[in-house]
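README, section 4: Worked example with a bound small molecule

Sections 1 through 3 covered apo chains. Here we extend the same pipeline to holo records, where the ligand is supplied as SMILES alongside the sequence. The molecule in this example is glutathione. Nothing else about the input changes; the structure line simply encodes the ligand pose together with the chain.
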Amino acid sequence: MKLFQTYLSPFPTRVRMMLYAKGIEVEIVEPSGIHDATAKGTYMAVNPLGRVPALQLDDGRVLIESEVICEYLEETFPEPPLMPSDPWQRSQVRLISRISDIYIVMAMLPLFILAGKPTSAWNQNKITRALKEIDTSLDYLEVYIGGEGYAVGKALSHADGTLVPILLLVEQWLPVFRGADLLTNHPKVQAYWRAIARDKICAKLIEETSIALKKSMGSA
Ligand SMILES: N[C@@H](CCC(=O)N[C@@H](CS)C(=O)NCC(=O)O)C(=O)O
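The generated complex, written as structure tokens:
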């Protein structure tokens, strides 16, 4: 199998978490120009949406959308499970992915767009509004995040693969916008963030994403 992805993007990171945890070997391909809307070239034939991740199976079929890919991997390679067996806990894993995708990532979107422009074009009102929106979305997470070292329950799950790259952006990228420290406003999320860094697989994801982020910010 081939995973089309970048180390900077949070969506492929949740797929890599599954691959690492389940010991699945795939070829990693970083499509050139993925973060440039005009330069995706032949990658559009792999994923007509022009986004990463995409997983190409050995028979050539291509799966897109990180949640769909993760579900496919979970069903095809059930061991070790990254979805809890208890239906309530499974619903909490899905809920955390939805809070992340629908609220936290969407709240960050205006800042992703600003980050692609020179700082002279940054609009302080837009930044303040976006940071407030992110703060509110983290309030939602604060209610549902687990308190036992993992996003849900006492074991690594798909929800951790979703949250790790997002919280890394909150901790290491949001400071460029000079707002308040949003993690300290959310003690349960902050405690989770400290705890999850002790999980070997999540530590690897944190390291990979952090290196890619530093490169993108021109500091590595
Ligand atoms: N809903 C998609 C989102 C994927 C996505 O938006 N990926 C971004 C990187 S974070 C991308 O490829 N962006 C390229 C573009 O929008 O041109 C998923 O979960 O896979």
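What to look for in the output: Strands lie at 2-4, 27-29, 54-56, 62-64. The two ends are 30 Å apart (CA to CA).

Section 5 describes how to batch many such records.
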